[in-house]
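Section: Multi-chain targets

For targets with more than one molecule, the full set of components is provided together so that the structure can be written out for the assembly as a whole rather than chain by chain. Components appear in the order listed by the source. The example entry contains two components.
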Amino acid sequence: MQDPDPRVLARARRGDLAAFEELVRACQADVYRFALYLTRDPRMAEDVTQETFLRTFRFIRGFRGDTKFSSWLLRIARNCSMDALRHSPDDAALDETPEPVARGLADPLARAALAAALASVPIEQRETFLLTEVLGLSYQEAGDVLGVRVGTVKSRMFRARRALCLALADEEEMG
Amino acid sequence: MNIHERTQGALSERMDGEYLAAGAANEAETHLASCSACRSFSDRSARVRTAVRIRPAEPIPDLTEPIMAAIEDASGNRGFRRPPRGRWLQGPKLTRRRLGPIAAALVVGLVAGSVAVGGPWQSPSSGSVAAAAVVRNVQAAAPTISSYQAQFSIIERGLSPVVPQRHLTMDVAFLAPGRFRIDVHDRTVYPSNVWTPTDLTYIADGISTFTTGPSGCPSQLPPDVCPPTRATISRPTRFDVGAPLAADLILPVTTLSSSQGVRVLGDGDLSGQGPVEVELNFARAAPMLPFLALGGTWRPFFAGDRVVLTLDGTDWIPRGVTVYPSTSPDRRAWELRFGLPVEAPSEPILDVQATAFDRRPPAASRFVIPGDGTPRSTSLAHLSEDVGYVPVTPTQTLGLRLTSAVAPPLPGPAVPTSLLTYTKGLSYVVVGQRTGAGASALLGSADSGARQITLPDGGIAYVSAATGDHGNVVSLHTPVTDLTVESDLPMTQLLSIVASIPLRGQAAAAAPRAASP
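Its structure, encoded as tokens over all components, is:
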């Protein structure tokens, strides 16, 4: 995930709405995608994306630049996603929405196995996996988003991978 | 933590591009060589990565307007921007709007986060999104077109001071599977008989093609330097695996294989009503103008010249292509080199417009290639006897059917020894195979720009995205067999077909550069 142009960021921090709009355009896809993977509900992901940028606008003056802007933004998106999940009336949407992650696998059985495995790993492994493997963040950046140390990202990634590999292994044996 | 956990942990870190201490890396490598469980972990992790990284982009809404409207509301800054359009609520809560799925933007070996985003395509700022939608619509239309006939009017300006404008007509016909015909008739009244009219005929049937017309004469030379000759250029067969020359005239699948460099003009309203205008440069649009490459005499075009392509908003079939001189300062130097006057960017130099159009099938007799010696399509069993091996076939073809199985008669070092063609409408997949002693390098279009990827089965494949010369190409290499699979399908679909071929690719000796993870 690319960090926005620092000049645009500086203008946005000074309250320039046009600059903030540029940030929205540049970053909304990653925010939406991350929210979609966490909530697995496109409508909720839209609301989360909007809420994320509202909070970002409110707090952008306080952004100190001690992490990358993109990490800070995804951290807000994660908080908004968790809030949305906590307040969602039911989790019916989870069943309707196909798992977006595993569509690149040609074998539909393996795809289903992988999707199911990803849905069943603990949320902290899942979000770490999404940030690192899907959005391409480094361990340091993922740690910044999640507020955990690099070592924690490392072990969560390993555990998530092992769970997914086990699911593929089971599928291979059955197939 | 035991040795397996340490090794797999190290492999996991290395996959993510993290730095490994030399001791840990050495230990992992040594252990991996003797531990099948850890090798399985490595293989399966790679499969997982392929699964999440090679896939179509999901539809992503453009939420800029509602977000900015909500922010303006919240900050009391209303009136700063134009009022939000009616399709959005003005409050902080979103309206629900049914979004069309965005183009299945290709994500091969790329992290999903870098994919172009999509959403409502009416606003001018979402031009790239509109372009992606056009690309998707064109690609989706390809398998649905099984026959086509059209007449075009071609106006060309600036060939020569004594021939400032030419008028030609062109008949184009297509009949699935794989039969194309282009006839160009030159209607120009030339000032003298030293000019040879550009009358051309091109016929393609599967991999066989036939071209006839006057030999090309560089248009910048005066006629007495290049005496008019009327030669028949006959290329009865084409043995390479390659995109059909005429296909993009019917539907610009190769031209619009990606939305990069493509801009939708106007308000980008893709609601399905009326024509859609798309802008791109001449180099990109060249596959749509195949008649320029068939011979005869044509004026030169600058690679950066501006091309406006008019597509029907319902069937996505081109109705017109207009070329305007580029405004680039480099064009002036190019004009001087070709002895051209300064050409105004607003004056079209080539205007190709459909004058009649019909989806009914043309007579099959129009596609008969004169002469003999063209390879005949045969059954797979007969082909196996001819070539001495059973050609590998995909088990998954996405509805495309095997329409041709041939052995190209003229052998060569980088020529497939068998060609299988699968088609549906304009969509095609050609599987070129070379098995035996000569299979030592990648075939055909797998050029040095090909990127190495890992398929879901762990096999290695080399991938080249479509250019003006070829469609999307995936190549597989093993010590005895080389395979090149070319198609006008989107890369994700092509990869799913290739993944169903029972051949596990290995790294080629002269490997193209590996895709960075």
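DSSP finds ten helices and 17 strands in chain B.
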